[in-house]
């Protein structure tokens, strides 16, 4: 068995991994959630090997990772629901179950002909699939019924010699952040069904997610942040998240997570009284990695709750911060954005990459969080 | 030492003139009619128009504090005349609203340079701590404050327990992780359909209400540390009354106010009591806008009595809320320690200044 460190000589590792998979072999590979077992899902021998390894009965589906909706369409039949999910939620920690087109080897699709497809929000897998020009299996690297693994060691140690011999290549990315395996959504029928709960759960309406705890609201913040970064941003504009919703629905929790994502280590307390708090951002926050031209240096946590009218908003001179040379380096979370007045709100949408987030109370521990992204260029 | 103190950390533009730690004058924009005094137009809708208000407020503080004759004189003349008699300028550097702080900081720099005065930069929270050292022009009240002293300071913008080893030696031992105590009261007031600021309204209603009417949580009660959290309390209050018809809320305003206020105050006291047990201070102090509440003062006095300690709180009501007097006194002690701003030109506001 060969072992490669993906954090070193990245391109070569991706290239080598693609070659190994193409030749029908099995690779342990890092994903956005857990370590996965990657084989070519169209290769009969490779799929048999994978099923043998996992002690899995044929008939239970094995999900595959693709790079985009176009590639997915080669393997599954789209429905109105699945189109919506692909357009709004992917890439992200979701597996979408659709009716398969039988283009994969036996054992990939489930007994009922369904197939789970992922577009992982992960550079490694994305680049691997691009390199391959086709899908890979994205099943979590564990034996059936066991828990998934976040490091190569925890996966490797308990394996029998026989099982170890079945892995042809190990691609090591170190310890992965603990994210749950993806949320599995069945999009075949008109009513969406959640088959397995991951970190993010979709809500009843389009572009909504369900949070059952402060932690999950934080995960949603992270998901939306990554999503915005992937969009074609106008890099000359600041990025503003407008957070609307009743008291106690999670607006400050969201802002606090955003600060953490940006690398701010200070305590983030309520800005209601002072209206906004400014935070300087340490250089190179990890999540802006993909966009090297987007160096964010300042985070503004603003709460317009106390403002009674648009004049009061104008007094705090928020837009003046946009005029400076550094406006593109600004990220702001604005709670109660409706209190700035309609004119100012329209102006904000023009001046910034604006993401509107709406927090709704469902029950004591549940919030439905809707979002829409306005990127006017 | 004559001090001109300037405070613009959030809503109010404030200035004061002091002789050492004695207040000679105290001016807050929201409490005086600048229009009639100095003319000029500051629209009523503008709450935080510090830029428009700073000059008249400073002029008024100098005029009153130094007994200057203002008749027929322009603002600039009054300020010029007053500044001749000032030795030190003290200004709030932070924490606070950046844009508001800038106005005060820039004006203090301008005056310090123009009139060649020494400048001290004061932390707003230190101002609240030292509000218990503020005296009137007859050097009253006399207080013997022994260290270490433990301070509870709570307002709309902050909630902290601070251990003082001496003037200038502070350690934050507990603080809110989310909302401030005063903010919680303000928000509860708004939820009940009442005005802003909410503290005084809630206090008035609570007097006639039943604190046991509604059971509310005491967030962080069982956490081992001395930190506070008021966000969850606000949320649970909100969802308890959310679906009530307005008539039902109105019928129970007093009881609701009493229950909520009681939850906030008990939370404040649980941690403060714990802090007293841990740090065994010689004196207790309390300050900040929330201390304007007489019920809280009563409970704090009882806490002090139970522990056989003396407790001091600001001697006049406008010393609790944001004001320039406390900034002047904090500035006075800094000046005594020789802590002047070295490079005045480069002084910049610090919106999230730590104490």
UniProtKB/TrEMBL annotation, chain A:
Pfam families according to UniProt: Sua5_yciO_yrdC (PF01300), TsaE (PF02367)
GO cellular component, one term: cytoplasm
EC numbers on record: 2.7.7.87
Membership in a protein family: Belongs to the SUA5 family.
One GO term (biological process): regulation of translational fidelity
Domain of life: Bacteria
UniProt subcellular location: Cytoplasm
Any one Gene Ontology molecular-function term assigned to this protein's record: ATP binding
Protein name: L-threonylcarbamoyladenylate synthase
Annotated catalysed reactions: L-threonine + hydrogencarbonate + ATP = L-threonylcarbamoyladenylate + diphosphate + H2O
Keyword vocabulary terms for this entry: ATP-binding, Cytoplasm, Nucleotide-binding, Nucleotidyltransferase, Transferase, tRNA processing
UniProtKB/TrEMBL annotation, chain B:
Keywords: Acyltransferase, Cytoplasm, Iron, Metal-binding, Transferase, tRNA processing
Reactions catalysed according to its record: L-threonylcarbamoyladenylate + adenosine(37) in tRNA = N(6)-L-threonylcarbamoyladenosine(37) in tRNA + AMP + H(+)
Cofactor: record remark: Binds 1 Fe(2+) ion per subunit.
GO MF, one example: iron ion binding
UniProt-listed GO biological process terms: tRNA threonylcarbamoyladenosine modification
Superkingdom of origin organism: Bacteria
Transmembrane segments: none
Role description: Required for the formation of a threonylcarbamoyl group on adenosine at position 37 (t(6)A37) in tRNAs that read codons beginning with adenine. Is involved in the transfer of the threonylcarbamoyl moiety of threonylcarbamoyl-AMP (TC-AMP) to the N6 group of A37, together with TsaE and TsaB. TsaD likely plays a direct catalytic role in this reaction.
Record family assignment: Belongs to the KAE1 / TsaD family.
Name of the protein in question: tRNA N6-adenosine threonylcarbamoyltransferase
Organism: Candidatus Shapirobacteria bacterium RIFOXYB1_FULL_38_38
């Amino acid at each position: 068995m060969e072992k490669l460190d993906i954090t070193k000589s990245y391109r070569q590792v991706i290239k080598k991994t693609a070659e190994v998979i193409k030749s029908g072999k099995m690779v342990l590979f890092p994903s956005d959630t857990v370590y996965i077992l990657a084989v070519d899902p169209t290769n009969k021998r490779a799929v048999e090997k994978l099923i043998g390894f996992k002690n899995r009965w044929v008939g239970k589906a094995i999900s595959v990772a693709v790079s985009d909706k176009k590639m997915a369409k080669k393997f599954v039949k789209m429905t109105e629901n699945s189109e919506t999910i692909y357009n709004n939620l992917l890439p992200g920690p979701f597996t979408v179950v659709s009716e398969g087109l039988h283009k994969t080897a036996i054992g990939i699709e489930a007994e009922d002909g369904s197939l789970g497809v992922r577009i992982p929000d992960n550079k490694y897998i994305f680049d691997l699939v691009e390199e391959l020009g086709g899908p890979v299996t994205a099943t979590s690297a564990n034996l059936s019924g066991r828990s998934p693994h976040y490091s190569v060691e925890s996966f490797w140690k308990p394996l029998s010699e026989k099982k170890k011999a079945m892995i042809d290549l190990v691609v090591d990315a170190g310890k992965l952040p603990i994210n749950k395996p993806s949320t599995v959504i069945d999009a075949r029928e008109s009513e969406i069904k959640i088959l397995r709960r991951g970190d993010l759960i979709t809500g009843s309406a389009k572009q909504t997610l369900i949070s059952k705890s402060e932690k999950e609201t934080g995960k949603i913040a992270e998901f939306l942040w990554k999503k915005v970064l992937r969009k074609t941003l106008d890099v000359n504009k600041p990025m503003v998240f407008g957070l609307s919703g009743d008291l106690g629905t999670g607006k400050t929790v969201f802002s606090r997570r955003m600060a953490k994502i940006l690398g701010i280590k200070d305590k983030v307390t309520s800005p209601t009284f002072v209206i906004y708090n400014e935070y300087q951002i340490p250089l190179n926050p990890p999540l802006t990695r993909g966009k090297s031209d987007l160096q964010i240096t300042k985070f503004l946590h603003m709460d317009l709750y106390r403002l009674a009218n648009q004049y009061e908003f104008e007094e705090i001179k928020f837009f003046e911060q946009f005029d400076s040379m550094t406006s593109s380096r600004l990220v702001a979370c604005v709670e109660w954005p409706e209190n700035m007045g309609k004119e100012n709100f329209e102006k904000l949408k023009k001046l910034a990459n604006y993401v509107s987030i709406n927090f709704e109370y469902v029950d004591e521990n549940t919030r439905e969080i809707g979002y829409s992204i306005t990127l006017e260029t | 030492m004559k001090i001109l103190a300037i405070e613009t950390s959030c809503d109010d533009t404030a200035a004061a003139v002091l002789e050492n730690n004695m207040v000679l004058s105290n001016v807050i924009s929201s409490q005086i009619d600048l229009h009639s005094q100095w003319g000029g137009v500051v629209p009523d809708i503008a709450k935080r128009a510090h830029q428009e208000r700073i000059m008249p407020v400073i002029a008024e503080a100098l005029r009153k504090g130094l007994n200057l004759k203002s008749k027929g004189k322009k603002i600039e003349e009054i300020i010029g005349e007053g500044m001749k008699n000032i030795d030190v300028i003290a200004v709030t550097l932070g924490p606070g609203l950046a844009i508001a702080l800038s106005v005060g900081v820039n004006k203090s720099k301008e005056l310090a340079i123009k009139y060649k005065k020494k400048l001290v930069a004061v932390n707003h929270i230190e101002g609240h701590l030292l509000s218990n050292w503020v005296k009137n022009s007859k050097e009253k009240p006399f207080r013997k404050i022994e260290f270490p002293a433990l301070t509870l300071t709570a307002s709309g913008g902050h909630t902290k327990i601070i251990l003082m080893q001496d003037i200038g030696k502070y350690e934050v031992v507990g603080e809110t992780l989310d909302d401030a105590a005063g903010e919680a009261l303000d928000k509860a007031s708004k939820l009940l359909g009442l005005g802003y600021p909410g503290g005084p309204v809630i206090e008035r209603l609570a007097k006639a209400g039943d604190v046991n009417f509604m059971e509310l949580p005491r967030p962080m009660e069982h956490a081992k540390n001395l930190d506070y959290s008021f966000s969850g309390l606000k949320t649970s209050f909100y969802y308890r009354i959310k679906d009530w018809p307005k008539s039902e809320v109105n019928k129970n305003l007093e009881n609701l106010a009493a229950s909520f206020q009681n939850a906030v105050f008990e939370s404040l006291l649980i941690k403060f009591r714990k802090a007293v047990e841990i740090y065994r201070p010689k004196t207790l102090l309390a300050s900040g806008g929330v201390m304007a509440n007489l019920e809280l003062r009563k409970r704090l006095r009882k806490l002090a009595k139970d522990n056989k300690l003396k407790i001091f709180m600001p001697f006049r009501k406008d010393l609790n809320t944001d004001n320039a007097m406390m900034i002047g006194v904090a500035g006075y002690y800094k000046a005594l320690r020789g802590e002047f701003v070295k490079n005045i030109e480069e002084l910049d506001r610090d919106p999230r200044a730590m104490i």
